[in-house]
């Protein structure tokens, strides 16, 4: 689909911009010129935009296509993006974090690790056929997550108890997949029909 490719192209440019804006040591004058040019571009993009209760026209919510998901979305300026595939019930994710995700020098911000894990746990939960929202996420930071280093994440469902699903996951490097840097356990809850209507009613109406 042409529009999705264009969205991904723009997202890619924005991610490059965010990384260079984070690492640049250019003088103040150059930064101010860049800011002015970027504001012009932003204004142009904002001429036609959607509100909070309208899905992106390029998305396919029920088909799992979310172009602006801040973790996996090709169109997101914020997403690493994390690429996930499910193999025999295990979600496997790959990404490399740039300096835009830095917390302690040289390493990822802890909140970014939690965000990646929330997403991949959620993916495993959806893949198990028990979709739900995160109600709890416990994260254990064993070693710092290096930037500019290919990462490998895993997640799988451990337990289904009615509407409650428990999943666990890890972050490691591609080079040392057996050494867990961060692990997480999450609880997800499937929504009742009334909860779905209350939270997502306006969006589902525009979808229909
Ligand atoms: C291919 C595409 C991939 C797509 C992949 C997509 C991945 C997306 C990953 C991102 C996921 C997110 O970030 S989701 C966004 C972050 N999460 C949220 O914003 C959720 C905020 N929480 C809520 O709105 C609410 O908690 C609800 C609506 C989820 C549930 O309502 P509730 O009133 O709390 O719970 P209720 O329905 O009464 O109870 C359901 C059961 O869950 C239990 N329960 C409720 N909270 C908890 C809890 N913290 N810890 C343990 N258990 C809990 C209750 O005790 C009850 O157990 P029992 O009595 O039945 O035994």
UniProtKB/TrEMBL annotation:
<dbReference type="InterPro" id="IPR052365">
    <property type="entry name" value="THEM4/THEM5_acyl-CoA_thioest"/>
</dbReference>
<keyword id="KW-0443">Lipid metabolism</keyword>
<keyword id="KW-0378">Hydrolase</keyword>
<feature type="domain" description="Thioesterase">
    <location>
        <begin position="108"/>
        <end position="172"/>
    </location>
</feature>
<dbReference type="GO" id="GO:0016020">
    <property type="term" value="C:membrane"/>
</dbReference>
<dbReference type="GO" id="GO:0006631">
    <property type="term" value="P:fatty acid metabolic process"/>
</dbReference>
<dbReference type="InterPro" id="IPR029069">
    <property type="entry name" value="HotDog_dom_sf"/>
</dbReference>
<keyword id="KW-1003">Cell membrane</keyword>
<keyword id="KW-0809">Transit peptide</keyword>
<keyword id="KW-0276">Fatty acid metabolism</keyword>
<dbReference type="Pfam" id="PF03061">
    <property type="entry name" value="4HBT"/>
</dbReference>
<protein>
    <recommendedName>
        <fullName>Acyl-coenzyme A thioesterase THEM4</fullName>
        <ecNumber>3.1.2.2</ecNumber>
    </recommendedName>
</protein>
<dbReference type="GO" id="GO:0016787">
    <property type="term" value="F:hydrolase activity"/>
</dbReference>
<keyword id="KW-0053">Apoptosis</keyword>
<dbReference type="InterPro" id="IPR006683">
    <property type="entry name" value="Thioestr_dom"/>
</dbReference>
<keyword id="KW-0963">Cytoplasm</keyword>
<keyword id="KW-0966">Cell projection</keyword>
<comment type="similarity">
    <text>Belongs to the THEM4/THEM5 thioesterase family.</text>
</comment>
<keyword id="KW-0472">Membrane</keyword>
<dbReference type="GO" id="GO:0005737">
    <property type="term" value="C:cytoplasm"/>
</dbReference>
């Amino acid at each position: 689909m042409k529009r999705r490719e264009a969205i991904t192209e723009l997202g890619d440019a924005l991610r490059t911009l965010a990384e260079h804006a984070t690492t640049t040591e250019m003088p103040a004058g150059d930064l101010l010129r860049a800011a002015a040019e970027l504001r012009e571009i932003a204004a142009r993009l904002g001429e036609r935009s959607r509100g909070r209760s309208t899905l992106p026209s390029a998305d396919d919510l029920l088909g799992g296509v979310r172009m602006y998901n801040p973790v996996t979305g090709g169109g997101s300026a914020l997403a690493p993006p994390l690429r996930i595939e499910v193999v025999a019930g295990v979600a496997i994710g790959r990404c490399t974090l740039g300096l835009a995700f830095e917390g302690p020098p040289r390493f990822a911000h802890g909140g970014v690790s939690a965000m990646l894990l929330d997403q991949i746990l959620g993916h495993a939960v959806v893949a198990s056929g028990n979709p739900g929202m995160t109600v709890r996420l416990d994260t254990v930071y064993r070693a710092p997550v290096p930037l500019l280093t290919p990462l490998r994440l895993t997640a799988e469902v451990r337990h289904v108890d009615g509407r409650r699903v428990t999943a666990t996951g890890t972050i490691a490097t591609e080079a040392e997949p057996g050494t867990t840097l961060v692990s997480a356990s999450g609880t997800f809850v499937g929504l009742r029909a009334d909860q779905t209507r209350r939270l997502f009613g306006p969006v589902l109406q525009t979808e229909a």
